Amino acid sequence: MLSVTIHEAGYNKNNLYVRDVRFEVNQGEIVGLTGPNGAGKSTSIKTILGVMDEFKGEVTYPDGYKISYIPEEPILYENLTLWEHLEFAAASHHLPESVWKENANRLLETFQLRSYINQLPIHFSKGMKQKTLIVLGAMVKPDIYIIDEPFIGLDPIATKNLISLLISEREDGAAILMSTHVLDSAEKLCDRFILMAQGTVITQGDMKTITSYANKPEGTSLLDCFYEILESSHD
Fold first, then answer.
1. Model confidence at 231, in pLDDT bands (50, 70, 90)?
2. What residue spans define the domains of the chain?
3. Residue 3, phi-psi category: left (phi > 0), alpha (psi -120 to 50), beta (remainder)
4. How far is it, in rounded angstroms, from Cα 135 to Cα 157?
5. Strand pairing class (175-179; 144-148)
6. Sequence-distant contacts of 182-188: CB under 8 A, at least 24 apart
7. For the chain, is the Cβ count within 10 Å smaller at the N or the C terminus?
């Protein structure tokens, strides 16, 4: 569904920080992109989205794909109500009214935003803004999700609801790339993992592959495996 090859990428020619990054995200799977701060995760995501000026490589999607991007920092229009955001997104994707309204109402109930539909997001907490972006992203029923740190700012109920939503979308065939530092949630949710450090991919694979690469026994947590791998990479 999504194939990524980044030979090099960065914000300018003198800062080509990300190099030799290759991975795929297949239909019906959730892939966790993780690593320490400064590993190159956000730069890789921006490269995939086509907003990085300096990029050598190739990012391919199927023809006619629909993609939703949910950023770490919520960005909303201050002068549009929550419902007007939904209407704007639906119009941008040319969605039939019957389809988008049904999806929107279901998601608003799930993320407890129904009573805020006529309010301006400038008055929302960060968690509410994050939930708004999740509703906007899921409402259009994309083929591909690209999500940057989705759990930051969410309360436990919203986190549980997001996990349930992503599992449901995976079952419906969506391809989901999720950057996260919340490794306990990622371990339960993701089918595969990509570990980045210092601008490149250290290793990738399912939990069995990660455990083997870290030379850890089966059943070792994802956090402990990644800690061991990162420590070894510094030696």
1. confident
2. 76-142
3. beta
4. 15
5. parallel
6. 182/151, 182/152, 183/34, 183/221, 183/222, 183/223, 183/226, 184/221, 184/222, 184/223, 185/151, 185/159, 186/32, 186/34, 186/222, 187/221, 187/222, 187/223, 188/163
7. C
At 110, which amino acid appears?
T
Contacts 24+ apart (CB under 8 A), 132-137: 132/74, 132/76, 132/82, 132/85, 133/70, 133/71, 133/74, 133/76, 134/70, 134/107, 134/162, 134/165, 135/86, 135/104, 135/107, 135/108, 135/111, 136/68, 136/85, 136/86, 136/89, 137/68, 137/69, 137/70
Residue type for position 182: V
Indicate whether this model's pTM tops 0.90: yes
Q: Which two tokens stand for residue 220?
A: 């070792």
DSSP line for 51-73: --SEEEEEEE--TT--EEEE-SS
- Mean of pLDDT values over 154-173: 94
Q: Is residue 73 over pLDDT 80? A: yes
Residue 202 predicted with pLDDT over 90: yes
Q: DSSP 3-state assignment of 103? A: helix
Residue 72: predicted pLDDT: 87
